[in-house]
Amino acid sequence: MANERKATAVANANIALVKYWGKRDPALILPYNGSMSMTCEGLQTITTVAFAGEGQDEIIINDDELRKDEKDIRGHLDRIRKLAGIQGKARIVSETNFPVAAGLASSASGLAALTLAAAAAAGLQLSPKDLSILARQGSGSACRSILGGFVEWKRGSQPDGTDSYALQVAPPQHWPDFRMVACIVSDKAKPVGSRAGMAQTVATCPYYPQWVETATKDLETVRQGILTKDFLAVAAAAELNALKMHATMMTTTPPIIYWTPATLEVMHAVRAWREEGIPAYFTMDAGPQVKILTLEPQLAEVERRLSQLEGVARTIVCTPGQGAALQEKHLF
Amino acid sequence: MANERKATAVANANIALVKYWGKRDPALILPYNGSMSMTCEGLQTITTVAFAGEGQDEIIINDDELRKDEKDIRGHLDRIRKLAGIQGKARIVSETNFPVAAGLASSASGLAALTLAAAAAAGLQLSPKDLSILARQGSGSACRSILGGFVEWKRGSQPDGTDSYALQVAPPQHWPDFRMVACIVSDKAKPVGSRAGMAQTVATCPYYPQWVETATKDLETVRQGILTKDFLAVAAAAELNALKMHATMMTTTPPIIYWTPATLEVMHAVRAWREEGIPAYFTMDAGPQVKILTLEPQLAEVERRLSQLEGVARTIVCTPGQGAALQEKHLF
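^ inputs. structure came back:
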């Protein structure tokens, strides 16, 4: 048996405050607009990768959602082997600790952990910037999960994607009170994958150019708001940004409507609470779940009120989390 | 007592297939885009107007929704008196026969009936075109209720509004099978009046210019589809047009969200039925109610399915209806 190269990495999921929606280059996964996210502590994927022997890659994943990306994972392994100039069959075990139904993109944490573990196992020494560029090619939003805290994915302008990477705007300890409460709603919408959804939006939505233009402005607002810890500025811009993204989805041909009745129930509730003075805003990704933005002092009240909404099955509280990291202990 | 001039008119409500959303001239009520509607048989307002004596106008309205427009009604009476060169106190009795909660704009039928009755009582002899121009100044969409069947409100380009009027694209008997089923949903959204809502959209929505541009194309599609009785072309364009309008509403600052959970329940149901081969599409105006577009042969099945939806309190079936007309019998 050849000398086995093995590494294990852990990466957290991330939730965007300014959304990534639409690829200007689908092969390299280059976005039309820059985006901003919070890395979510504890919503993690842990992945061990070993390169050894010959034959087909063995991939063991405990997460149905991530398992759908298996073809991408195989392509990503080829990319990393090529970059490292190595050969050898990969053996991968990947475990995600948050429920698939959470509507929290496990492909981001999954591909980020895979990138870091596989790069290390392959003997590559990469900077966070280069790791994020590599992760981006596996799954766009995965590039943001390489870093911790509040993370910007720079759009870039180079055709080769070398300037489209994630960087940390502020570490987790900059704003420890920031909270995102993921609301798992009880009813299911018919899913349209985000990859197909964004391609359809770029191709047919008449509002798409204005989405790109205004998302770029939202990014400035949210970046500045994060740096000055101006919750209202960040949260209001994030809410409007999410509505603008969903507005582009529902005006494609044919329309894509990710919201369900429960989604709207939570949205209206949050707006009503706000009129009572509770600092709470919402954001939604390519699915029915609502993520509520609030601050730690109001978290208990927000959770109490959420527990009274018919459409909310349960909640997961997210705090600003760490970036991807290598671990000593392996999964096999 | 002076010689009393009295007239009574009846006008039906209308539901737009291509929406009116945004005024380029708020005083004259000139729209940014042309629109298209079906006049709805039997959803009527009957109004008697008499001019006699001196003093303040007396206005008796049985419709809470229309009563909110009382200030506009007084202004409209002044406009008609000025045009006719008459003086004299107006006495008005107005009755709307469809429920206020129906989410069917009673201001359209109300202002159309008022315009026709008041013009006749004032001794004005006006063409349908001039009546629609006059009605438009009372309430934009009222200009469409002057005419029957399928009606286009031409945008026009003159600053004085003389080329912004309604005209009949096809009479009711052209397409007697066309149906709109108004679904009265059981929950209430916080209302934002359409006048305030459209002003806010024009002022702050980044997608508004593309709304205007694409609505103009939708108008061509729907007009052609009506003339050739191509249901799928008309209904698909109408549904996308409604989604595009709501997308502009929810991306204003602050966002306006007219939909409720029940609205989305009906929308998703209609889309699912369509996949089963039932020709059904939806449209929504500045409120939570959903109006379903279908054809007479499928009406019973659509109604049966609607009766099984939790969020639908009841339905009102609309058929292509007559334009506004004078009546012999008066209300007082």
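The mean pLDDT of chain B is 94. The interface with chain A takes residues 189-190, 206-207, 209-210, 213-214, 239-240, 243-244, 246-248, 250-251, 253, 255, 257, 259-265, 267-268, 271-272, 311 of chain B (CB under 8 Å).
thumbs up if we can close this ticket
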